[in-house]
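Section 4.2 – Deliverable D4.2 (structural model, holo form)

The reporting period included a commitment to supply a predicted holo structure for the target in complex with flavin-adenine dinucleotide. Inputs used:
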Amino acid sequence: MEATQDAIIIGGGMVGAAVATALGQAGMTVTLVEGGAPPAPIAEDAPFDLRVSSLNLASQRLLDDVGAWSHIPAARRCPFRQIEAWDERERHTTHFAAADLGLEAFGHFVENRVIRHALWQRLAALPQVTTLCQASPVALVTGGHQALVELDDGRLLAGRLVVGADGANSRVRELAGITTHDHDYHQRALIVNVRTRLPQQDTSWQRFTPEGPQAMLPLPGPYASLVWYGPPEATREREALDDDALRAAIERDFPARLGGIEAVLGRASFPLRRRHAERYTRPRLALVGDAAHVIHPLAGQGLNLGLQDAAELSERVIAAHAAGEDPGNRRPLAGYARARRPRNLAMIAAMESFHHLFTGAAPLRQAGAAGLAVAERLGPAKQRVMRYALGI
Ligand SMILES: Cc1cc2nc3c(=O)[nH]c(=O)nc-3n(C[C@H](O)[C@H](O)[C@H](O)COP(=O)(O)OP(=O)(O)OC[C@H]3O[C@@H](n4cnc5c(N)ncnc54)[C@H](O)[C@@H]3O)c2cc1C
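Output (structure tokens):
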């Protein structure tokens, strides 16, 4: 058996790698177990990947605090300074400008693989962190004075704390016997990367239609990531179109504001599901990120919530360790769950209302459209809502 670590983190995605860097740079010994390969470097002029996330300011701060933000090249991140939302006929508009809040930008759109690679670059500089790739847990014992994790390659790890950061289908969650509340929205999100006729944009916009929202996330240069939500069958049909037919469908059905597209560069679709773990902790164990909650991607908050879990858990565990306490003790873990669960639930509920307001029965849809108009007139309250969602 390997020497007992302060923490064993299962899952080296963006959230798991964020916890590992935070604990590692605080001097704690960490083993990070990743089921796949380590992230590969990305050339500055490589085509944009389809998985892109909006990082709010709180997420940027966390990445900066753990020394990863500086590893994200400017050529691979796109700041957004305005957010707009319209109803189907583009009548009711909500507009938020970063400048109104005295900010330079609301955040950045960055490819998931770029964020992950930046975190792993930082990990490589932390001698207390050991990474084990192509390995997965097969058994877990979390009671007693240390937790034990058996890996599928036969290795046995011991640690004071186990962190489950292994995504929506978390094996750690399953091994710990934590059940989830699940819901299938019966919708898919089609992501299409395009080269736009318009030059670089700094506005992220969204139009709500009865079929589902359509969104534009700007990427650096004349590129954008389009998200087209819809019923599974219609989405599959669109996904199967050839590039020219898909371009024509987008130009016909998306708001004219898009300004035409020059080329379709890639597409993929994902089912939309909600999943929430019935608890975030067990003795010596905590779940973070998608292992704890999967939310509707409508407002691009999934990763932001996961990174806030990472920040909250790390802060409490590091404080316990610094005070000479066992980092797997009940107190820091209970504090983490108490702090994060209500906030994540609030975001799940907000996404739920949005989804039903805009894709439900006609009167509800009208209420949704009216909501946009109301949001526009909220004044200071609008700013409070924005500040919460943007982590400022
Ligand atoms: C269509 C769509 C659009 C989205 N857009 C946004 C957005 O704009 N903004 C935003 O904030 N969020 C967005 N999200 C959500 C975001 O992608 C997720 O919340 C985020 O990826 C979760 O990160 P994670 O590290 O918790 O999990 P993951 O990214 O799933 O990482 C899990 C890691 O664990 C590893 N792993 C899995 N199983 C095992 C195992 N058994 N053993 C060892 N390792 C394992 C995996 O290889 C992976 O590296 C979107 C989601 C979807 C579906």
